[in-house]
Design a protein that fits this description.
The protein is of the alpha/beta class. The protein has helices at about 40-55, 60, 70-75, 105-120, 140-150, 170-175, 195, 205-215, 235-245, 275-285, 305-320; strands spanning about 10, 15, 55-60, 80, 85, 95, 120-125, 155-160, 180-185, 220-230, 250-255, 290-295. Helix 4 packs parallel to helix 5 (about 140-150), helix 5 runs parallel beside helix 6 and helix 6 crosses helix 8.
């Protein structure tokens, strides 16, 4: 086995035990357009303190998001419910893998209190995969959405869910019935790369989840995202766009894949800003209401502003159609 002395740990255990045997990848020098400043603002520190006091986890930290300094300085945080240990082991993800703890019954209340304290206009809620739960954690999503609606009526709610693979259809139905403003489920990559990048998921099942969400509530905004720089071809990215439009998805995000550690899936290449701009142009031409496509784009990056843009785009489309 390779030396794992410096491999990331969570508490006293390896954060990614399933990746410890992987041979470390070469270190690639990041281009100038991918670099960000280290977080050091007072607002960042206050946001971090609030998350700790409320005993909440954030995907910003757990997934090692490069935008954490900017977002937390603006008091934007993506809360990760259902614990901080995932039952899957995707090759790209920094979230710890293992046996999750019991679901925290106080999590919805603590989340609602934090949203109110921060005065959040738009909140994003995601979760780890919980294949160990009968409903995949859907009931906790429902409770969180409902409690925020009760305590912060002006706050819009965006959720980024797992795929609920092998779970009852009621899992998704109950979540949509709770009336989130945005339903997001990421495809993550092109179908050819699923066996190595997202082995626990199935591409067409994820597409079905997105299509079904829109069928259940035609007014909910649906959203999905992919990473590029994993070895995909441009034609494959365009096919993913077509598949998402067939599922009536409104909003697409595209960002550069950045390996959390040297033992995660390797970076194939750094996609240039011009290529991201071209993907945005093509996506809008294919009919998405909104496309966020930059090297640093992540699912919830600028989510508040993007939601406002989504609503404006839908209204403009309705006016053009005369509806």
């Amino acid at each position: 086995m390779n030396n794992v002395e410096n491999f990331p740990r969570k508490g006293g255990r390896l954060r990614h035990p399933e990746k410890a045997k992987n041979t470390p990848n070469p270190v690639l020098r990041k281009p100038d357009w991918i670099r960000v400043k280290a977080p050091n603002s007072q607002e960042y520190t206050e946001t971090r303190k609030l998350m700790r006091e409320a005993k909440l986890h954030t995907v910003c930290e757990e997934a090692a998001c490069p935008n954490i300094g900017e977002c937390w300085s603006e008091r934007h945080a993506t809360v990760m419910i259902l614990g901080d240990i995932c039952t899957r082991a995707c090759a790209f993800c920094n979230v710890a893998t293992g046996k999750p703890k019991m679901v925290d019954p106080m999590e919805p209340e603590n989340l609602a209190i934090s949203v109110s304290k921060m005065g959040m206009r738009h909140v994003v809620i995601t979760s780890v995969d919980r294949d160990d739960l009968d409903d995949g954690g859907a009931d906790q999503f429902v409770k969180c959405i409902s409690r925020i609606h009760e305590t912060s009526r002006e706050t819009t709610v965006e959720i980024l869910t797992p795929d609920f693979r092998g779970k009852p259809e009621s899992a998704l139905e109950n979540i949509i019935a709770a009336k989130p403003d945005v339903f997001n489920h990421n495809l993550e990559t092109v179908p050819r790369l699923y066996p190595t990048i997202r082995p626990g998921a199935r591409y067409f099942h994820s597409l079905k989840i997105l299509a079904r969400a829109k069928e259940l509530d035609p007014m909910v905004f649906t959203k999905s995202g992919i990473m590029v720089g994993l070895g995909e071809e441009k034609t494959e990215v365009l096919q993913v766009m077509d598949d998402l439009r067939c599922a009536d998805v409104d909003f697409l995000t595209i960002g550069q894949y950045l390996a959390p550690t040297l033992r995660h899936a390797p970076i194939d290449r750094f996609v240039t800003p011009d290529e991201f701009t071209e993907y945005k142009r093509i996506g809008l031409a294919k009919g998405f209401l909104h496309v966020a496509s930059t090297p640093l784009t992540r699912s919830s990056y600028h989510a508040d502003d993007d939601f406002q843009a989504l609503r404006a785009a839908r209204q403009a489309a309705l006016e053009v159609s005369g509806a």
